[in-house]
Write a structure and sequence with these properties.
Blueprint: E1 2-6, E2 9-13, H1 18-30, E3 53-56, H2 65-72, E4 76-79, H3 105-114, E5 118-122, H4 130-142, E6 147-151, H5 167-184, E7 190-194, H6 200-210, E8 216-220
Parallel strand pairs: 1-8, 3-4, 4-5, 5-6, 6-7, 7-8
Antiparallel strand pairs: 1-2, 2-3
Helix pairs in contact: 2-3, 4-5, 5-6
Length: 224
């Protein structure tokens, strides 16, 4: 399974039959080719998971009624959605802000609970630990939330990221997180973060080294 990301939005493809098609389309588009898709409207693939569509809820988003109302309509919330690596940790209070407050974990969890949304937790690979991430999953489950997946870090393949590391080091992090999280919450889905086709060698090594413990990949697709 794959997760295709475009800027701030994420789309889950929980049905295995869809993943090769979407990845093929992504590569064809990036290469300048014109993909041709034929839809067989007579074929039934069964019920569509609520996790097909979702969105990022950043901890830096303004905690306003408008943002909360929009987030509560989403079936899947990825939190903190892109800024986890060097600043945000679920169990630490946010620094005071001059404007309206942002979303700490209790506020984000309340939005998810209100909309009966699943959560996709994004761990802090810089300041956090596998044990701390496991406690986060426990806390989410204790709040009655369904944890659709746990992404380990965010864009660590890139040298612009505070969590930047080699594929082998990242794989070790993922394996450690998977063991700690599943020790307290068996069956939790572990998600690998990979980059675009420019990071193909890094991606392949990361997938190869973690294939035994991951359930999905969060594919961050930036065509440019």
């Amino acid at each position: 399974m794959a997760m295709l990301r475009s800027s701030r939005l994420n789309g889950r493809t929980p049905h295995r039959a869809l993943a090769p098609l979407l990845v093929a389309l992504a590569y064809a588009t990036a290469a300048g080719a014109q993909p041709r898709v034929v839809v067989d409207a007579t074929a039934s693939r069964g019920a569509v998971s609520r996790d097909v569509f979702g969105g990022d809820l950043e901890f830096i988003n303004t905690r306003s009624p408008e943002v909360e109302a929009l987030a509560a309509e989403l079936p899947l919330l990825r939190f903190p959605g892109g800024d986890a690596d060097s600043v945000f940790r679920w169990d630490q209070p946010l620094a005071p802000r001059c404007t309206r407050p942002g979303f700490d974990w209790p506020a984000a969890a309340a939005v998810a609970a209100r909309g009966h949304a699943a959560v996709f937790l994004e761990t802090n690979i810089v300041q956090s630990t596998p044990a701390n991430a496991a406690l986060w999953v426990q806390d989410a489950v204790g709040r009655g939330l369904r944890v659709a997946g746990v992404g380990i870090g965010n864009e660590v393949w890139g040298d612009w990221d505070a969590g930047h590391r080699s594929a082998s080091r990242y794989a070790a992090d993922v394996i450690a997180h998977a063991a700690a999280i599943r020790a307290v919450a068996p069956g939790t889905r572990i998600v690998l973060e990979i980059g675009t086709r420019n990071e193909d060698a890094w991606n392949r090594e990361a997938v190869r080294r973690t294939a035994a413990v991951i359930d999905a990949v969060d594919y961050h697709y930036y065509p440019n």
